[in-house]
Amino acid sequence: MPSIYDLDAAQLATYLDAEPSYRAHQVWRGLWDEGREIADITTISKSLRHRLAEDFPSALEVAHDVTSDRGATRKWVFRLHDGATIETVLMAYVDRVTVCVSSQAGCAMGCSFCATGQAGFTRQLSVGEVIEQVMYAARAAAPRRLSNVVFMGMGEPLANYPVTVGVVRRLHEHRGMSARHLTVSTVGVAPAIERLAAEGLPLTLCVSLHAANNETRNELVPLNRRYPLERLYDACATWIATTSRRLSFEWALIDGVNDTDQALVELADYAGSLQAHVNLIPLNPTPGYLVRGTASARVYEFRTGLEERGINVTVRNTRGRSIDAACGQLAAVTNGHKSSVALRTR
Ligand code: SAH
Ligand code: SF4
What we know:
12 strands, 12 helices
């Protein structure tokens, strides 16, 4: 087991079966209700803490810890037990505190504009490795309460389906988090969206659309060749019909690629017929994709154009740009030039 958070309550009780039965409850409460590190679960003896910590060392070793946006954004690169690296980003807002978690080390989807996609796939994360990111961030956020979890770090959550579902279930059941506060972002694995719709899980779904014609989307998101826009549309419609929940599309604005008037009309048609919300994301530059992001004047023009067509749209404020805090970028840099991260600015 990579992490103590991989254990469910019954497995923890089995592990502690030589102890009085209330012991498992004390440990469980310390881990889940209070989000403590094993060493800080002071309701149990020092020797038991020591044994637990030896058998279940922390899954996350901090390789880098960087702060930006005057302290409101904090990003960690964590090294896992086998040396794989992932990233986790904590973002504090006036009304909420959000953690962005990784669901895989790397990603096999190969989206051209994404640093994680450019670096390729290393391995799946376990439930515990994802939960530990949440708990680590919750401790760092204190005294504020961590309110939201978004699966928008490294990896494609629906390509690690059982783990994503397991994490959402546990955060709901053991941390009391609700659908409004749990968001899964997917590149558009159509059959997995349909399967997810049937789980009855409390979560919000975002689909990374980026283009609403197959030719452009094939270039940006190779998975579109397997699940083209028509197939994705059916899956989105199923999601909405089954869950009665609103869907969001993400659209990273790329100069001359998907910010044209034609792209705007295509997006308005696609999103409009599903009554989906659109989230415009200014593109973060990455080493492997040399096309520029859309200039900000055009971003706002594009937003207005969508609004005029009746689309509900927001422009995402990209946090942590100076620390490459969007989608795997810091980890990509870290692998190559270990010391350059903290000093990098744009
Ligand atoms: N694999 C999932 C979730 C992780 S990516 C997905 O693709 O949805 C989270 C979001 O960041 C996605 O919408 C993705 O398209 C976007 N993204 C990736 N690289 C980006 C970049 N360079 N600039 C802006 N957004 C990017
Ligand atoms: Fe993977 Fe998402 Fe990046 Fe595409 S955008 S490569 S699916 S992490």
